[in-house]
Design a protein that fits this description.
Radius of gyration: 19 Å
Number of strands: 0
Largest sheet: none
Helix content: 55-70%
Structural class: mainly alpha
Oligomer: single chain
Length: 216
């Protein structure tokens, strides 16, 4: 895509959804951090179902420690990899208390020190809570970046680097939300719904599905 095409790409997505947000449910920075950590290899819908009761009880790292590992597992056992995720949440909660006074840090270097927190999770927290211009590349963005020609790369890190260079203002803050939602609901993995895509003419994908398949 050219610079003009990229600008138009995001302009249309922004016009359709001016204030996109994560679909994870949370009430503060700590709950967001936990929710994103739990969302690895899981759906936002599934995480929300598990965390509603959890977050009604737990708002701080100390409350999570008071709940304990077994109590946490009881809340999140419907989420994939719940045992390892629970151990990481307990460990990161302890580290937040020990090293950060119970507060969620606002730098990527500090966030990735926390158990179970990788670059993508850190970027989501920095973007959604601290309003930093980060690009959290998940499977949806990896697919959309490569399929459309917006940001090609074999790894999330490569796609992130391309987005850092190519996404213009005033779209940088919300760009990763637009791309995730576009990949989740329009540019789907199995059959991209090109027949209803608002940026189809800007996309370089050669195998566009321009006619809605008939149901069998």
């Amino acid at each position: 895509m050219t610079k003009d095409q990229i600008f138009e790409f995001f302009r249309r997505l922004a016009e359709d959804n001016p204030e996109p947000e994560t679909e994870l449910e949370y009430g503060n920075a700590y709950q967001l951090l936990v929710a994103v950590a739990l969302s690895a290899q899981a759906t936002d819908v599934g995480v929300n179902k598990a965390t509603r009761a959890l977050f009604a009880r737990v708002e701080t790292p100390q409350q999570m420690l008071d709940l304990g590992l077994d109590g946490l597992i009881g809340h999140i056992k419907t989420i994939g990899l719940f045992n390892s995720k629970a151990k990481n949440v307990i460990a990161l909660s302890q580290l937040l208390i020990d090293d950060y006074g119970g507060d969620v840090p606002d730098t990527r270097d500090d966030l990735v020190r926390l158990p179970g927190v990788g670059r993508k999770t850190a970027n989501v927290v920095l973007n959604c809570w601290f309003k930093q211009e980060t690009f959290a590349v998940d499977t949806h963005i990896l697919r959309v970046g490569n399929r459309t020609g917006l940001a090609k790369g074999k790894t999330p890190e490569a796609v992130e680097a391309k987005l850092e260079k190519r996404v213009p203002q005033p779209f940088r803050l919300h760009a990763h939300h637009w791309l995730i939602l576009h990949g989740r609901y329009v540019c789907k993995a199995r059959t991209p719904e090109c027949w209803r895509c608002q940026v189809v003419d800007l996309c370089s994908f050669r195998k566009k599905v321009l006619v809605k398949p008939k149901k069998r």
